[in-house]
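Take a sample.
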Amino acid sequence: MRDPFKIDQSTCISFSGGRTSAYMVWRVLQSNAGLPPDTVICFANTGKEVEATLRFVRECGERWHVPIHWLEYRDAPPGFAVVDFSSASRQGEPFEALIRKRQYLPNPVARGCTSYGARGIVNSTVWCCSVGRARRFQRRRAMYCQRRGMRTLSETGAATCAARPSQRR
């Protein structure tokens, strides 16, 4: 049986800043003897996270000696900004900018944070993929990847897609 945390091509790990997301990152690091080449870990800050979450994200990167790319939504191209612990928004600015652009609040029917905010920010990076999503997202992720001309890595058991080699920078 293939190790679902073994990574063998360009991958972006979407790290939520929560415990189960941290566990997923830790398992990836264990299975690959560190962070594999062409693998990035992204944290999409909404500006609404509690301070303890921001400290936890920073601490995970420091303890495990891996770079975690902090991203925030921006209404101007390229659609995100790279920040760090000290420059991360803490007053909800990225979230408010998203609401202004969409002109409605996220709700169970139109989940703006999931579809456009955090996931949209991570998907707009060079590597468009996600590891460790729940099973219910696998079909949606596969359709998303196929529409954008990306491969689906269903053999990992996680909802994962990676840019074709011609799309990598």
